[in-house]
Design a protein that fits this description.
By secondary structure, the protein is mainly alpha-helical. The protein contains 8 helices and no strands. Among the domains are: 79 residues, 434 Repressor (Amino-terminal Domain); 32 residues.
C-alpha cells in the first residue's frame, strides 16, 4: 500500500497541479505549505482534523480510510490492506464508468486470471492476448467489421 507521500506524488505527476492548486481543490482544508511538507517529508502523525482527511480523500478520489492507512504507512506502521494492487492502481474517475464498461473490465480480468491459472497448472507461459466476444482484428484496426475497411471482408467472426 502506498503512503500519503507516494499518493500525493503520483497525483502531482499525473495532474501537474501545484501545491496551491491542490490546496484550492481541498477547499483549503490542507494548506499549500502542508502539501509541500507532505511531498518532501514523511508524516509523523495522522491529521487531527477530519476535514483534512476528507479534503485529501476528495482530491485523490479515494476513500477516507485509504488516506488514514496511507498516513500509517508513512509513519512506518504495518498496514494490512485487503485491496489488491490492481484496485489501488485504478485511476481517478473509475466511478464514472457505466455498467457495460465495468462488465468489460471484469470480463478481461477474469479471462487473464483464468489464463494465468491454466498456464501455471500446465507449467507454461500464459497467453495474454484475450478478446471479448465479438472482438475482431477489424475492430482493432478501426473497422466496424462490416466491410468499411480492410478490403470489404467481415472479420467479426475471426478465430
Amino acid at each position: 500500500m502506498p503512503g500519503i507521500q507516494q499518493l500525493l506524488q503520483s497525483y502531482v505527476d499525473r495532474t501537474g497541479d501545484s501545491t496551491r492548486e491542490m490546496s484550492r481543490k481541498t477547499d483549503y482544508a490542507v494548506s499549500y505549505q502542508r502539501f509541500t511538507q507532505l511531498l518532501t517529508e514523511r508524516s509523523k502523525q495522522i491529521p487531527r482534523e477530519p476535514k483534512t482527511i476528507a479534503g485529501l480523500s476528495r482530491l485523490l478520489m479515494v476513500p477516507e480510510s485509504t488516506i488514514v492507512k496511507a498516513y500509517l504507512v508513512d509513519m512506518g506502521l504495518p498496514v494490512e490492506d485487503s485491496w489488491s494492487r490492481l484496485a489501488q492502481l485504478l485511476p481517478p474517475g473509475v466511478e464514472e464508468l457505466d455498467g457495460q464498461d465495468i462488465d468489460a473490465i471484469v470480463y478481461l480480468v477474469r479471462r487473464l486470471v483464468d489464463a494465468r491459472r491454466a498456464a501455471n497448472a500446465a507449467g507454461v507461459a500464459p497467453v495474454t492476448e484475450l478478446r471479448p466476444p465479438g472482438w475482431s482484428r477489424a475492430a482493432r484496426n478501426g473497422s466496424t467489421g462490416r466491410g468499411e475497411q480492410g478490403g470489404g471482408k467481415d472479420e467479426s467472426h475471426e478465430d
